[in-house]
UniProtKB/TrEMBL annotation:
Bulb-type lectin domain location: 33-156
Signal peptide: 1-19
Official protein name in the record: Bulb-type lectin domain-containing protein
One GO term (biological process): response to other organism
Top-level lineage group: Eukaryota
Gene3D superfamilies assigned to the protein according to its UniProt record, in alphabetical order: Bulb-type lectin domain
Keyword Transmembrane helix: yes
Keywords noted in UniProt: Membrane, Signal, Transmembrane, Transmembrane helix
Transcription as UniProt keyword: no
Pfam families: B_lectin
Annotated transmembrane regions: 418-442
Amino acid sequence: MGLPCVFFLLFAFLPRVFSALSFPVGGRVTIPVPSAYQPGFVGRAFVLAAGNAPPDFRAALSVEAIAGAGYSCSVVVLLGDVKVWASDHVTKFIPAGRCVLEMTPDGDLQLMDRAGRIGWRSGTTGLGVKSLLLKKNTGNLVLADAQNQTRWQSFEHPTNTMLWGQRLNASSRLTSFPVNSSSFYSLEVHKDKLVAYLNWRGERYSYWELQPRAGRSIAYTRVGSTGLKVFDVNSRKITQILAMKSGAVRFLALGSKGNLGLYYYSASHGKFEPSCRALELCDLPLPCGPYGICSSTNTCAYLQLSGMEYSTSFCGLAISEVEMVELRSVVTVLRTSSSASNVSKEECLASCLDDCSCAAALHTNGHGVGTGEWCSRYALVGGAREVEVGATDSSYWIKVARKGSARHETSASLVTKVLIVGGVVDAVALCVILGGLVYYFFKIRKRSVDSGTNNS
């Protein structure tokens, strides 16, 4: 298989010469779309450059191959080779024939194809926009009027990356969309905390939080040279995440697996590297995918249910065709805002059985005055991780469809069917090794005895 094609076109197909510092009204750039699909194809026409020492900010018109969907057309901002903003982050524009970037006479920045179909626009018609600028120090892409007042900026339309100096408040969020997945991740600002969510089929589950001290309210967060800073309405810093490396932080990214990372540029390696990451593997929302379990050894294992089946949809099945099964010494990192209090384990499991959209339930025994028992229900089996025996007051249960059974066992006779997790796999591997040593010992011993008998 050949290597992916990557093409960089500098000021290509321009009807006039543009400054590297601005893209004016009437500017137009075109990239032809390949007639045949080429996996890995990237074609870019760079229209703006900040003029810094490498790694530099650059803005470009971009045509990129999409798996199974042809080509996308977008405006992108790059920091070195890292894409830090893209107009098609949420919705892809699939052009016909060619990808065109144009600043219209009335000040609207538009992407269109050969047929004139508009796939993206800034929405700045009639606002007096005169040029597109790229801020030298921050990489903010700005549409400015004749008085150099900002009429639109990429910082107000965040993707999965926050650049140095960029703010995130309650009206915006970071989002990350894994390839070929119906789920996505988001980082959001609430009054009392920063929260990372797994968004799955209309449901949302938190898996990471950063809270200031009690009584402090969050107004916005901003990336600084030493990390992520959180501020109140008076712009006073109330909490922060500090980078672990000495290099200046250039951006924060929400990764394709939902992890948060602060990144700095390593001159010795010639690339951006993580200064710190918020989560370890088993703290991620789907480190092993649905129905996977992250073991104490940071490896993935998957459920093996003897005589039963698991499913991602239980609607259409009778209650007698499903049952709840406990995963011993397993919990989930996912948290739901709709947990019910003062619910017994039997009631918790029964409520999940009655709801065909429920795939799993977490029941927690309360200790102390006023704590009670808690029941959390989930529409997916995810975020499962192994814990030490006796290390938790919670029990994690998944719904399974019986294989060839029309009878439902009562909750009193629920039997724990064991599930293979990393620790069990490790134990099996250990047994195999020990078995091999025992075999080897007796084999050598037998050979020695036979040799001695022959010699005598």
